[in-house]
From TrEMBL:
Protein name, entry field: ATP-binding protein
Assigned keywords, A-Z: ATP-binding, Kinase, Nucleotide-binding, Serine/threonine-protein kinase, Transferase
Domain Histidine kinase/HSP90-like ATPase per the UniProt entry, residue ranges: 17-121
Organism annotation: Actinomadura darangshiensis
GO molecular function, one term: ATP binding
SUPFAM superfamilies: ATPase domain of HSP90 chaperone/DNA topoisomerase II/histidine kinase
Record InterPro entries: Anti-sigma-factor_SerPK (IPR050267), HATPase_C_sf (IPR036890), HATPase_dom (IPR003594)
């Protein structure tokens, strides 16, 4: 999917926003896969007049929860060897949607019953 998005951005002459769009795509797809393991997801990618729109659908009725952003400094972060163990969750995940919000000019969720589209618009 990343390769297809990158190729299309290049064809549209929008390589300058590829980094942001690819990061958003990765976050939205990862969230959809996590929400509906072993189920179908759908991806839409469209060029608009002054933006690109990326949307990812999954069949889960569960709405995304955005982690509150807290200010941190490097001294707040301490290495934890357990983080390398399979299945270990130290509770530091959940930063995908704040990243999407920071990079997108607009983003949101549209319920579809079943499921939802989570979308992000990036200005170009």
């Amino acid at each position: 999917m990343r390769t297809l998005v990158e190729i299309r951005l290049g064809e549209w002459g929008l390589g300058k926003i590829a980094g942001d769009v690819l990061l958003i795509a990765g976050e939205l797809v990862a969230n959809a896969v996590e929400a509906t393991p072993d189920r179908e997801i759908r991806v839409r990618f469209a060029r608009e007049v002054s933006a690109v729109l990326l949307a990812v659908w999954d069949s889960s009725a569960k709405m995304p929860v955005v982690r509150p952003v807290v200010e941190m400094v490097l001294d707040d972060v301490t290495p934890d060897a357990r983080a390398l163990d399979d299945g270990y969750d130290d509770g530091t995940g959940g930063w995908g949607l704040p990243i999407v919000q920071a990079l997108a000019s607009k983003c949101g969720v549209t319920e579809t019953r079943p499921g939802k589209w989570i979308w992000a618009r990036v200005a170009c």
